[in-house]
């Protein structure tokens, strides 16, 4: 299948709303929409659901700074305490160290910063889980 963008003859492996695009044009479309969703996000409110979806979908294209990995699904489904900041957002996510090798005995909350402009995710802190933190088990 060829990219649906005008005058592009590259093979497409990416779909946006059911329309095939090459990776470069898919990135242009989705990152533009992510920036629009960020601009539409009102301060002191929850982010638009579409913003969380797009950030998760595009997270594999971000450079990740830190000793941890966030899957797209974790960002979309388990992020909480979202805050809009210049050029992006911060959010928290409950993590379960050692969950793949042992029973979940420990929970920590990591705080991340997503910079939309530079396409970077930064782990900016980690703390113990406390009452009131979300632990969405999806």
List keywords for this structure.
138 residues; single chain; 3 helices; 29% strand; alpha+beta
* Helix vs. strand class: alpha+beta
Q: End-to-end span in angstroms?
A: 34 Å
Which ranges are low-confidence, i.e. pLDDT below 50, for 5 or more consecutive residues? none
Radius of gyration: 17 Å
Spatial sequence of strands, sheet with the most strands: 3-7-6-5-4
Q: Count of DSSP E strands?
A: 7
Give the biggest sheet. Answer: 5 strands, mixed
Question: What's the mean pLDDT score?
Answer: 86
Which of globular, elongated, flat, extended, rod-shaped describes the shape? elongated
The helix tally amounts to 3
Relative helix content: 25-40%
What series of H and E elements makes up the topology?
Answer: EEHHEHEEEE
What percentage of amino acids are in beta strands? 25-35%
Overview of the molecule:
The protein is 25% helix and 29% strand. It has 3 helices and 7 strands; from the N terminus they run E-E-H-H-E-H-E-E-E-E. Strand 6 and strand 7 (120-128) form a beta hairpin. Helix 1 (23-40) packs antiparallel against helix 2 (49-58).
Task: Give a brief outline of the structure.
It contains three helices and seven strands.
List the helices and strands and how they pair.
Elements: E1 14-16, E2 19-21, H1 23-40, H2 49-58, E3 63-65, H3 72-78, E4 80-85, E5 88-95, E6 108-115, E7 120-128
